[in-house]
Amino acid sequence: MFFRFTKYSDLIRPMSLIVDLLVINLFVYFLPININDPLLFHAYITFGWVILSLKNDFYKIHRFTKVPFILRKIFAQFIFFFLMLYAFIGFFKQPLMSRFALAQYFFVCLATIAIVKLITYVLLMEYREKFKGNIRRVVVIGKNKKTDQLINVFKNRDEFGYEFKKQFCLKKEHFDIEECFAYIRNNNIDEIYCSVSELKNSETVEFINFADNNLKTLKFIPDNKNIFSKKLKFEYYDYIPVLSLRDIPLDSPINAFIKRSFDVVFSLVVIIGILSWLTPILALLITLESRGPVFFRQTRNGIDNREFYCYKFRSMAPNKNADQVQATKNDMRITKIGKFIRKTSIDELPQFYNVLFGTMSVVGPRPHMVKHTNEYSTSVDKYMVRHFVKPGITGLAQVRGYRGEIEQEADILNRTKFDIFYIENWSMFLDLKIIVQTVLNAFKGEAKAY
């Protein structure tokens, strides 16, 4: 499960990357380039293409993107790819390589990838327009010239894939913001577009909090210059400017693909290298001490607040309160072997199966029990933002000391703040840093690992 399932068309982007990598690697054999070390060349162009793609946002094409913008991306990508190709000759001292054949290879790759990219773009537009696939349900808050123009875009540009549901006029005497929120919840609205000029400061805050706590995408129509005092993401729908309040790095299909690829490889290493021999040993020790299953599964909330089964090695005697009450210090339910595996975090290792199956990631916000999610979603501001990404076996909040039992309100507030910071500032380097810190903490032992 690479991506959130609300965005089926995003699968096109990683597939496009794979197709492009096949093109630049296979076309090498159709021209007499005279490569001395084919393996080195393939590694060079593959790694270089991925780096250039990330730098240029080559695969970041939105439903409202125009063809000239795509052509500019293609031009920028291949300018750097051209320089990278000829730099190979000098860097790796390849005097026998044919410069002319390399130029032919470059133009063949350029033409093929450009054609494939444009065809994919057109087919996706046709898919949205004719088959009504990958639709976003939207509402517009406010009524003025800008909002009317945006609604016309939603209604007339079917290829963008937006289904306009309702417009709320803030100037009406009987406007009730709670009724507006109820409509959005009851009609499964995906995105909310607000006119900045018509919102009071208090209403802006209410919409921001509502969107965060209900996993809705909130965007602003910038008809008020004061909104530019914040760093926001600026986009154009046709010729209508729209501002996004939150930009999540893992919404990028390339970033999500990289993270998912790492998750699969890392989980397989742990499952084959550790769980394959550790599981039988722990199974024997767990069953000898107390009757019951070796594995414990618990329903928790994951991405988009969907429920899933989270797996652990059983560390407690079977009890009816397992899904209701968190483990506490000196908890009588914890067995002797359970105390050891909880202290060393070994009990969490079966969650690598969750990672492999796609319900979790190695790093992300820790998933909570359904009971706690229902409780904190109403009592902790922006708590639901944690569910914009997959939950993790470990996370930034955990390595900063906010793991285990929630003893006071500050624990869940700080955990939520760290989780939101992680979501908005994700990088592969940050994931690796968290993993290393988690391993070090497991060896050192943690005060709240009980």
Largest sheet strand order:
2-1-3-4-6-5
Assembly classification: single chain
- Class by alpha and beta content: alpha/beta
Distance between the termini: 32 Å
Q: Unreliable segments (pLDDT under 50, ≥5 consecutive)? A: 1-7, 225-231
- Rough outline: flat
Percent strand:
5-15%
Give the tally of structural domains: 3
Number of helices: 14
Helix percentage range: 40-55%
**The biggest beta sheet, please?**
6 strands, mixed
What is the succession of H and E elements?
A: HHHHEHEHEHEEEHEEHHEHEHHH
Calculate the mean pLDDT score and round it: 85
Number of strands: 10
What is Rg? Answer: 26 Å
Question: How would you describe what is shown here?
Answer:
- By secondary structure, this protein is of the alpha/beta class.
- The protein folds into 3 domains: about 10-130, no CATH class; about 135-245, AF0625-like (Rossmann fold, 3-Layer(aba) Sandwich); about 255-445, no CATH class.
- Helix content is about 50%, strand content about 10%.
- It contains 14 helices and 10 strands.
- The chain has helices spanning about 10-25, 40-55, 65-90, 100-130, 145-155, 175-185, 200-215, 255-290, 335-345, 350-355, 370-380, 395-400, 410-425, 430-445, and strands at about 135-140, 160-170, 190-195, 215-220, 235, 240-245, 295-300, 305-315, 360-365, 390-395.
- A 6-stranded mixed beta sheet has the order 2-1-3-4-6-5.
- Strand 7 and strand 8 (about 305-315) form a beta hairpin.
- Helix 8 runs antiparallel to helix 10.
- The longest helix has about 35 residues, at about 255-290.
- The protein starts with 11 loop residues before the first helix and ends in a 6-residue tail after the last helix.
- The model is unreliable at about 1-5 and about 225-230 (pLDDT under 50).
